[in-house]
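Sequence, structure tokens reproduced for absentees:
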Amino acid sequence: MDLLSRLALFTPLDFAALALLVGLWVISGYLIENPGKSWPSVSHLMANYRRAWMVHMVTRDPRIFDAQILSTLRQSTSFFASATMIALGAGLALLGNTEQLISLADDLAIPQDPEIVWEIKILVILAFLGNAFFKFVWSNRLFGYCAVIMAAVPNDADSPLALARAAKAGEINITAARSFNRGLRAIYFALAAGAWLVGAEALIGATLLVCLILVRREFASQSRKVLLGPEPDEAP
């Protein structure tokens, strides 16, 4: 079976649903990472706190507290990378044994498609999981770079290198967090892609739901309201 024959197994609604999935994944990520100045996202607000963290780290003695926070961040990336690898392994195993999935679909009265259709749908899920895995691994490595730069910050706060290296550590920390958040978003959309196994309508609904959850948490959540709250030096 050639490529055109395989594509012919999918309906126009399938292609529209897949385009919506990929499109909203890209668009939501761009809006979260590049918000307007009048309506910043939680990720954008947290980036400013990460910069402030590194500035205060310069005068903190000892810096055990900072090391513990960074260790916690690295543990989070390691956990998600490991969990994503397990999910990838499960997906690959399922890819080699789609008969059980087809049998389950039959029991649930889900319309049966040719085996190649199920395999392609699983591959889409695996593509998102693979992207998430690479993002988590890179995030973990960047947090490691951040730790090294933090260790290179002089203990003397008056040193001309202190704030300069602290600023570098802050930007590396922000880049690591951005990669971590991208990995999380990829997992969200991998879950949405799983709905395609039920049908194109389910994929559209799951994609819109995931996008709504992400946008709400970044732009209309209680945590964002707290971050935007006034601080003593900003109080009128």
User: Anything to note?
Assistant: The CA atoms of residues 80 and 136 lie 7 Å apart. The two ends are 71 Å apart (CA to CA). DSSP finds nine helices and no strands in the chain. The mean pLDDT is 89.
